[in-house]
Amino acid sequence: MEIDENIQIFISEGEELLQEMEDSLLELEDSDTDDEVLAKIFRAAHTIKGSAGLFGFDHIIHFTHIVENILDDMRNCLIPTSSDLITVLMRSRDYIITLLDGLADDFEGDKAEEEELIHLLQAFKTGEPASAAGESTDASAQADNTEEAGSTEHSLTDHYHISVRYGPDTFRQGFDPASIFLQLADIGEIREAVYIDQNFPILNEIDPEGCFLGWEIALKSDAKKEDINEIFQYMDGCQLTILSPQSNFSEYQHLIDQLPEEEMALGQILLQTGSLTQDELQTVLNQQKESADAGEPASKNLTGDLLVENQMVQEEVVNEALNKQSKVREQKQKALTFVKVDSEKLDKLINLVGELVINGAKLDQITDSVANEELNETMESMTLALEVLREIALGLRMVPIGMTFNRYHRVIRDISKELDKKIKLEIYGADTELDKTVIEKIGDPLMHLIRNSLDHGIEMPDERVRRGKPAEGTVTLQAQHEAGYITIQIIDDGKGLDADVLLEKGIEKGIVKASDKLSKQEIFNLIFAAGFSTAKEVSNISGRGVGMDVVRRNIESLRGNVYIDSELGTGTTITIQLPLTLAIIDGFNVSIDEESYIFPLDMVHECLTLTQSQIEEASMHDYITLREEVLPIVHLKEHFDINHKQLNGEVVSEQRRRRNNIVVVQFANKKIGLMVDELLGEVQAVIKPLGQVFKGLSGFAGFTILGSGLVALVLDIPSLIKQVVGNEHRHFDSLKQKSIRSKGNRVVH
After folding, report:
1. pLDDT digits (tens, 9 = 90+) for 4-62
2. pTM over cut 0.85
3. CATH 2.30.30.40, domain 584-731, yes or no
4. Which of 5, 226, 327, 627 has its CA 20 to 30 A from that of 299?
5. Are 661 and 607 in contact (CB under 8 A)?
């Protein structure tokens, strides 16, 4: 079903709020007394409920309201924070996501699951699950204790403060909102009643049978709080807060926090929370006017100062109201700074910029062939502007990878509980930016690698203690930029990988032969083979041998690479290298047998013209000595099996075919030299993916269209370096075996 754009925005913003809610719940578990974190969780639920009300999504309103009430009780210390409660709130958060996702298909959720969650939440309200938290709590007793604890603070009023927002179905349920005033008048004196219309819709959207009323009421009474609550108990959907005459600052703080995120004057804030009456406010306003008429500076007649001076409102309440003002202004300023853009529109922009880059290169070539100074100057200006436009457009697609990393806090929490392990997550480099498209596709591979680390890597607490390690294991996620690529590492301090066991399993599965001589790195890479697993038992988390091969394929489809390094008994490090962007790069154009190839410019270390002796050395040994260092050489013509071309029916001469140009490339602290025919200079390359026909073609990251209209292949430098390093290992092992055999066959005289 195609849904309205406004509803899509609601879903998107709701998902952001729920992600924030999840992060805050995890933070709360580590610090269960953080009032600010609790307030953030409450605001997320409250905002979702309010936004759902705009669209009439009653099923979302109903469930979210129950969650909101629990969070409200937690803020008011009526329900203690516990790991069990956070688990249920996590499940409730997941269920709200299900409700949001179901809007497109008119799915209103699994009623059985919803009823279960409501039952669990209400149980915490009544104190039933207290044994799970190791405490005995009764909601009413807790409330009494809270009030007693709060009595150490000075009372802010001598009357009850009642804050009520009627539900939209109040009239339909047959209730008269005005009747409460008669009932309240029977048990006390109504000192002040302020009408609140913050939820009132615009006239053309009003429901004539809906109720949009709200009141802030000051009641002087000797009645108990329970007696006042009974007056409202049959009004379903009603939002009610009752502050007793002994209420402390935190309760008024809660009311101020609940106010809508819109700019209001200080007096209006205090009025709507019942901290101030209309008469008191008018008195202060008159006092300000008199002072202004007398010529006194405005700084000496601030509303807050006068309210405190006249003992109308406590100073801490005024300060909290001022803080509310500041937060709203900051959020508004921030909102003006950012604009949400549909990702499809952004992708179209990038594609158009790519076309401009290609056409700009064509114009540059045409300009070079025309001896027109004015045209050349214009072309130079356009090229500079195009480069700036390209950088800005690509920057729009760059997002911090921390947004992805933070999601794994929940994963580690849930899995560690399931496995009965103690595991913490550490994150470094969360502000490292990566192309949005890459981030969207890397989430699942990272998830699989982390789950494997948790299941196979981290030991049980008692086993870790026996090995002299802390009982709590650590999984580290870190990211950093490196030569046009981003490096992501998943590091655990677990038991590490046993190369002998991996090799034995690889031989058993027929993946490798017993006669094969593999480097340590190649043995570790067996993990990525299809169907490979060393797990003795299959769990819900891993062990089926399905997934790691998919992980590697998904990473390689992004022009990335994945490596494993491990030390038995110490831990394992999995390194993923990904390009910063999949769209446009600065490239270096070279020619091989009159065909163009593109190197990513940020991986080009230097260019060399070989001497005759170096050419001979490279031909004999596939390496040259460069500044007293051995540099491996890849003859790209032979590596890619490029056939010699013919010119005018004759084979290109040996002199012409002799390649004496080397491009030294560097990646992950490794250097190799790539032998080419000609160096053609820098270009801007719009990378396009290779088609299905070329699927599996090694050494190429894609192709681009040059200014001449010709196609040039973009080389995958990390892949080439990986191949060379692997060949070096095999060559070394071969030499080692030959040496061993030679020593074994030596005749002793």
Report:
1. 777 888 888 888 889 889 888 888 887 755 677 888 888 888 888 888 877 888 889 88
2. no
3. yes
4. 327
5. yes
